[in-house]
Write a structure and sequence with these properties.
Elements (H helix, E strand, L loop, with lengths): L5 H63 L14 E9 L14 E2 H11 L3 E6 L2 E2 L11 H15 L7 E7 L4 H8 L3 E5 L1 H5 L7 E4 L3 E5 L3 E2 L8 E7 L2 H16 L24 E5 L2 E10 L9 E2 H11 L3 E6 L2 E2 L1 E3 L3 E3 L4 H9 L4 E7 L7 H11 L9 E6 L2 E2 L5 E2 L6 E4 L2 E4 L4 E2 H6 L2 E7 L11 H13 L4 E3 L12 H4 L2 E4 L7 E3 L1
Parallel strand pairs: 1-2, 1-11, 3-5, 4-9, 5-6, 12-13, 14-18, 15-24, 18-19
Antiparallel strand pairs: 1-10, 3-7, 7-8, 8-10, 11-12, 12-25, 14-22, 16-17, 19-26, 20-21, 22-23, 23-25, 27-28
Keywords: Membrane, Transmembrane, Transmembrane helix
Family: Belongs to the phospholipase D family.
Protein name: Phospholipase D family member 5
């Protein structure tokens, strides 16, 4: 009844097995292909992401160049002018006179007017304060000074009518003058230093046509042109130096309203010269070297020397004397508590002890003088006790006390002069200043042994320091006697114990 064909049945089984094996093979091939495809897709995603990142980086770089870099009028390091003229400028208040010394320099207001007269294309100004015409203060100073400040404001307003561009970089300040200038087509950029470094913008300099510069202690404030003692320098026909200072201006210009510091800077902001590679030039027909410095460290692009590096270099290169005229000297960092800040103080100590360099400190005695200032000065003076050829002298420049207790004639200078070089800056010698605040400085060094020493800016600045040092407006720091720098200080500073040293400082509550 039944027929059994084993061979034929095995053949069917074999076919089924073969089909299953083929399906398994196809499945494994598909799985391998899928794995390869997924791996390829992952690689493509990674490569695409890298390409996108690279493209964004390139776009940012070119965007940074467009934003940060500006037309520099074809001036380069190779073709810029190095045959320059330098002039010291000062503001000496009307009721301060140095009858016993004939040293005098071009008035600050006249020097700034002259810079504006030189302008053809663009005037770039950085100032920590803009307060030229304020009716709240006009009754406080002399009519002649009021005329100077009004004339300054009017001159700036007239630049546009001459086809001259006015560009201003300022901190986040409320200024009637800046609003007025902006309405008259001046370009004003604001730098939010509080957001960037928790500090302030204290830089004070001018760049005119990338050819002439001013840098010094004065800001665009009626007091700088009237009641304060200020000092700075004008450098004419010096496009090499002007171009470098213009790059500092461009850095501020690009930071308008930013609340973060860029992680990289455009190449056009890199310094052209620094302490290791200064500009070789002639100043008033005398060979010299110069470079621009700046602060704080987070604002320093490639190759720029910091203000602290510049100050350190000038101090370390001195061989005979270091004369310092500064508003405040306080080697402390203040946060929640004071911490000793040795960067400058330590260098002065080394100069005194190791190199036997004579040091003179002329410090302003004014309403904001910190009581600990005197202790640090005494500490420096104590180093020279019973030390041969060790000399540290300190004096305080006393302003005039008005009937209402306010002070006028404050010595607002910020400079140092040695036997080899000068440093002019915008910051007080206080630790917090260099850490948080924006400032700019200028170093000029000139060789010794020049026949006509009076022609060098080093000798001119030394003469200005000597005039102030020996004037009737200074007082020496005497043993166990603390200068009273404002009407409130006498109640605040009560000596409770004197040091065991004869010329040591008193201790205070």
């Amino acid at each position: 009844m039944y027929s059994f064909t084993p061979y034929k049945g095995c053949k069917r089984c074999s076919s089924i097995i073969t089909a299953v094996q083929q399906q398994d093979y196809s499945a494994s091939v598909w799985l391998r292909r899928r794995d390869k495809l997924e791996h390829s897709q992952q690689k493509c995603i990674v490569i695409f992401a890298l390409v996108c990142c690279f493209a964004i980086l390139v776009a940012l770089i070119f965007s940074a160049v467009d934003i940060w870099g500006e037309d520099e009028d074809g001036i380069t390091e190779e073709n810029c002018s190095k045959n320059c003229r330098v002039v010291l400028v000062e503001n000496i208040p009307e009721d301060i006179s140095f009858l016993d010394n004939g040293t005098s320099h071009l008035p600050l207001s006249a020097g700034l007017y002259n810079l504006l007269d030189q302008a053809i294309r663009v005037v770039e100004i950085v100032s920590p304060l803009w307060l030229l015409n304020s009716s709240d203060y006009e009754s406080s100073f002399q009519p002649a000074a009021r005329q100077v400040t009004r004339a300054s404001d009017l001159t700036l307003l007239k630049l546009r009518s001459k086809g001259i561009q006015l560009k201003i970089s300022s901190g986040m300040i409320d200024s009637t003058e800046l609003r007025t200038l902006a309405r008259h087509n001046a370009e004003v950029h604001y730098v939010n230093m509080t957001a960037l470094t928790k500090g302030h913008l204290f830089s004070s300099f001018w760049v005119v046509d990338r050819r002439h510069i001013y840098i010094g202690s004065a800001s665009m404030d009626w007091r700088s042109l009237a009641t304060r003692k200020e000092l700075g320098v004008l450098v004419y026909n010096c496009s090499c130096l002007a171009l470098d200072l213009h790059r500092v201006f461009s850095l501020y210009w690009g930071l308008q309203y930013k609340d973060f510091i860029p992680s990289f800077w455009s190449k056009r902001l890199f310094a052209l010269f620094n302490k290791n590679a200064p500009l070789e030039l002639t100043l008033n027909s005398t060979k010299a070297q110069a470079y621009v410095s700046s602060s704080p460290d987070v604002f320093i692009p490639k190759d720029r020397s910091s203000d602290l590096e510049a100050i350190s270099w000038v101090i370390q290169e001195a061989r005979h004397f270091i004369y310092i005229s500064i508003i405040d000297y306080l080697p402390l960092l203040s946060s929640n508590a004071h911490r000793y800040w040795s960067r400058i103080d330590g260098l002065i100590r080394e100069a005194l002890i190791l190199r036997k360099v004579r040091v003179r400190l002329l410090i302003s005695c004014w309403e904001k003088t910190h009581p600990l200032t005197f202790n640090f000065i005494w500490s420096l003076r104590s180093l020279c006790m019973e030390q041969a050829n060790c000399s540290l002298e300190a004096k305080f420049f006393n302003p005039r006390v008005q009937r209402d207790g306010s002070l006028q004639g404050i010595n607002h200078n910020r400079f140092m002069v040695t036997d080899k070089a000068i440093y002019l800056g915008n910051l007080d010698w206080v630790g917090n200043e260099f850490t948080f605040n924006a400032g700019a400085g200028l170093v000029i060094s000139q060789p010794e042994g020049v026949e006509e020493r009076n022609s060098t800016v080093v000798e001119q600045l030394r003469a200005a320091f000597d005039r102030d040092w020996f004037s009737r407006y200074t007082r020496s720091l005497q043993a166990n006697k603390i200068p009273v720098c404002n009407k409130h200080q006498i109640n605040r500073l009560v000596p409770v114990k004197t040091s065991h040293l004869d010329n040591g400082p008193a201790e205070f509550y």
